[in-house]
Design a protein that fits this description.
By secondary structure, the protein is an alpha/beta fold. It has 2 domains: about 25-120 and about 225-260, D-Maltodextrin-Binding Protein, domain 2, CATH 3.40.190.10; about 125-215, Periplasmic binding protein-like II (D-Maltodextrin-Binding Protein, domain 2, 3-Layer(aba) Sandwich), CATH 3.40.190. The protein has 10 helices and 12 strands. The chain has helices spanning about 5-20, 30-35, 60-75, 85-90, 105-110, 155-165, 180-190, 200-210, 235-250, 250-260; strands spanning about 35-40, 50, 60, 75-80, 100, 115, 125-130, 145-150, 175, 195-200, 210-215, 225-230. Strands 9-8-10-7-11 form a 5-stranded mixed sheet, with helices on both faces. The chain has a 3-stranded parallel sheet with strand order 4-1-5. Helix 6 links the parallel strand 8 (about 145-150) and strand 9 (about 175).
Length: about 260
C-alpha cells in the first residue's frame, strides 16, 4: 500500500513530537536505568573481595554482590579495574557510577563521595613471616617494627593517627603498597617485618604465601560500603533498599560463608 505525501508528513511529525516530548534523565538512578548499565570501579587485587580468576574474570565477595545489585536494578554491570587510591576520584568525577572495593565510609571520603549503608564489617590482621618469632598482643606494638600497608586505606590512616602522630614510631618505618600481595612479597623478602591488612585478604595470603597471622581484631573498622557521587538521594535510596533486602534475605551471609574463612 502506498503512503500519501500527507500521511508521510504526519508520521514524521509524530516521530519528531515524540522525541521532543521525552525527558532526559534528571538524576543518576534515571541515567543508569536509561543506559541499561551500571559502571563499577574496583581494585581487583584484594581476594577474597575482588580479584581476577585464571580466565581474567572479576570474581569475589564484592563482585558477586554488585552483580546481584545490578540484577535487581534491572541493568547490566560493567566492572573497571582501577588502583585503590584512584577509586574515590573516579566516582567523584563521574568516571564510574559506583565503587565497591571493601571500602570503609570514612569522614574524609564522605567529604568527596556518598556511601550506601554498610554491607559488611570485618576485622584486621597483622601478618608476619611464617618463621617469624614476632608476637603481638596489642596493635600499638606494631610501632616497634617496619610495617607494610596498602596505600589510601583506613588501615594506613590508623597507623598515621595512632602510631606516627603520637610519636610512637617514625613515618619512614611505614612502607606503602598498591596491592596487598606486594606486602606479603616484601614480608617474605625481609624488607618489612609486619603487614597490616584486612583479615579476609590476610587469610587468602596465608594460603598462597609464606606468611602467617600474628594478631587479628577489629582495629580500624568502620564498615564496608559502596561509594557513589554526592547528592544523589534517589540512587542512594534504591541502593540502600536493595542492600537491606540482601541482608534480610541472607544473601550477604551466604557470600560471607562462601568467601570468608573463619
Amino acid at each position: 500500500m502506498k503512503l500519501t505525501r500527507i500521511t508521510i508528513v504526519l508520521l514524521l511529525l509524530s516521530v519528531l513530537l515524540g522525541a521532543c516530548g521525552s525527558k532526559p534523565p534528571s538524576n543518576l538512578l534515571e541515567t543508569v536505568r536509561a543506559r541499561g548499565k551500571l559502571v563499577v570501579g574496583t581494585s581487583a587485587d584484594y581476594p577474597p573481595y575482588e580479584f581476577k580468576d585464571e580466565q581474567g574474570n572479576f570474581t569475589g565477595y564484592d563482585m558477586d554482590l554488585i552483580r546481584e545489585i545490578g540484577k535487581r536494578m534491572g541493568v547490566e554491570v560493567e566492572i573497571q579495574d582501577l588502583g585503590f587510591d584512584a577509586l574515590i576520584t573516579a566516582v567523584a568525577g563521574s568516571k564510574v557510577d559506583v565503587v565497591i572495593a571493601a571500602m570503609a565510609a570514612t569522614p574524609e571520603r564522605q567529604q568527596k563521595v556518598g556511601f550506601t549503608i554498610s554491607y559488611n564489617a570485618q576485622a584486621q590482621a597483622i601478618l608476619v613471616k611464617k618463621d617469624s618469632s614476632i608476637e603481638i598482643k596489642d596493635p600499638k606494638e606494631m610501632a616497634n617494627y617496619k610495617i607494610g600497608v596498602q596505600t589510601g586505606t583506613t588501615l594506613a590512616d590508623w597507623l598515621t593517627k595512632n602510631l606516627v602522630e603520637p610519636g610512637l614510631m617514625p613515618a619512614e618505618n611505614i612502607s606503602s603498597y598498591d596491592r596487598a600481595e606486594q606486602i606479603a612479597l616484601d614480608l617474605q623478602a625481609g624488607r618489612i617485618e609486619i603487614g597490616f591488612v584486612d583479615v579476609g585478604p590476610a587469610q587468602d595470603l596465608t594460603t598462597n604465601m609464606d606468611v602467617k597471622i600474628a594478631y587479628s581484631d577489629f582495629i580500624a573498622e568502620t564498615g564496608q560500603a559502596i561509594a557513589m557521587p554526592l547528592n544523589e538521594p534517589e540512587f542512594k535510596a534504591e541502593m540502600d533498599k536493595i542492600i537491606q533486602q540482601l541482608i534480610d534475605e541472607g544473601f550477604i551471609q551466604k557470600l560471607h560463608d562462601q568467601y570468608i574463612k573463619e
